[in-house]
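Our consortium's second objective concerns turning raw sequence data into structural hypotheses that experimental partners can test. To show how far this objective has progressed, the report includes one record in full. It was chosen at random from the queue rather than selected for favorable results. The single chain below, 639 residues long, was entered without modification.
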Amino acid sequence: MQSRNQIAMMTVAKGGTVREITVGDCLELREAEAQLYSKGSSMPSLFYTWLRELGIFPSDAPITLRNLANHAGQHSVEALIDRYQLQCRPVRDLLVDYLAERQPALDYGSLVGLARTLAMHFWGDLERHHPGITSLHLSPEAASSWKTRTRSKTVRRRQSDGTVTDVTLPRTNAISILTTVKAFYLDLAFWAAEEPGRWGPWVAPCPIKESEIAYRKHAKRLKARTDQRTRERLPVLPALVKVADERLKQAQARLEALRATAPGSTFTVLGDTYTKAKSRTRTPTAGVAFDAKGRRVPLDLEENRAFWAWASIEFLRLTGARIEEMLEVSHHSLVQYKLPATGEIIPLLQIAPSKTDEERLLLVSPELADVLSAIICRVRDASNVIPCVPCWDERERLWNPPMPVLFQWHKSGQNRHVPTTAIRKALNETLEASGLTDSSGKPLSYQPHDFRRIFITDAILNGLPPHIAQVVAGHKQLSTTMGYKATYPNEAIEAHRAFIARRRALRPSEEYRRPTDEEWEDFLGHFERRKLSVGTCGRAYGTECVHEHACVRCSMLRPDPAQRPRLVEIRDNLIARILEAEREDWLGEIEGLQVSLSGAEDKLAQLDAAVAHKQQAVHLGMPTFPDLAIRTSSGSVGR
């Protein structure tokens, strides 16, 4: 009835017949409704769908009125730069020309981000703090102050007393801004070699040093934060799933009880008492009730949000897909594969290209099959067909052709694609109902991308090879997949234990058996038998003495400094015996005694050298500046 009234209102206001209504007339009606009603933006636009299906509008007319009313589409590079109102016209034209040169290789979302960085964070910031600036050749003071401002940002926070104050916080994407600006300077210098007349006048020294954009430290910090985020959310994921399932069942029970009750009657469900509303206005009230305090409760909307919260959580955690990939899944994404060997039918889910433009297939588990079945049963119409609806690509800012997407709902008399904002809102409501908190006691927050990190981490921890996880996640490089996977302390322990197990498997098993009492006593006795009168024998366990216990001659003897007098006595005794052997002409004894004497003197020399080394102090001195300058200059010449 309301859509008919809207069509009649346009014919009365504009004159003519229904066939003469234009798209502009429909937009004027929506603007008038927005001014007349407090909730005009939510007024149904089913009348537009009727008129379009009748063939009144041209073929290139938007599929729904929302295509024009709520989404402006892509902007030109001039509009992307002009939204920041730059004062220097030559630099403005340069940025427009630069974006036009980069546009063919970028998607629209990246183009918008590049325009924001160069026009707002870079040149717009310079114009605000240095009025009248016209050159990319920045002074050291201007460059330094800009980089300092880039590393922080000021946000407004409402305090507990109701006042609003400005708070300065570190900017997490500061290194990305610096990298983009450095690439801008380098591109101008590189392009000037090919087109000097076009880019040459703008070539200037880059104000950003290579050391200021060291990404390795930034990547490590980012990895640490994401790992900690994953470690906090992975253990409590079952609790979140349980809460989402319970909220859905409770919302469905309330809605079923409401539908079974006559308008104006009171009913009780799950311990709460409600009164079903009576339809006295143009606004549909079939799913509205009033609680015991007289507050209006839209039970149908609550059930709708609870269902899509449950469906989103289950889909994201079971597939590891991105949220934009989830919203693009259609009925055509469900495919089958027949195993050549056994003929078994394997259900697969085809993930459409999103970020990497590479589609992939995922195995549909029984849990995921239940979720997909519940979604299909919910969205198909009376003829068991899933309606085709247009989808808004938030990154490309374009409407995709109508497709039988699974994430759609019936709203304002027509089928619409579930927007990203609705998914995030439903997820936040589930988190609020769960009462989960982080390590600091604050309410735990989940982002849709957290489920992707949790999926990859849990899969690898449970034995899935990383290169298979890379294919499932749709990453081009294995390092990206391992970056998503959080590191746990017990992994290092388990990896070391596995290394020990592999090493033991390669060595004889008898080396790892429990030693007998005799073997243990023999092992301890070995170290006891190494104690000598002048020191300690350093030979290993299980080896025999190779010098037939002529310890003074052996290089394995470690002399004891406290036994130096005994070594001196041995040396003097050997000298006396050599003299005696020379007098008595015992030539056979002289050679052996001289070898022992040489060993004794060597051990005494080792002791003296050790004592001298401990007592000797080496003065390194303090280098002077001329010495450093001479050393540096000579070193550079040598290079």
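The partners drew two points from this record. The two ends are 88 Å apart (CA to CA). The domain at 235-261+295-445 is CATH 1.10.443 (hpI Integrase; Chain A). Both points have been shared with the crystallography group to help prioritize constructs.
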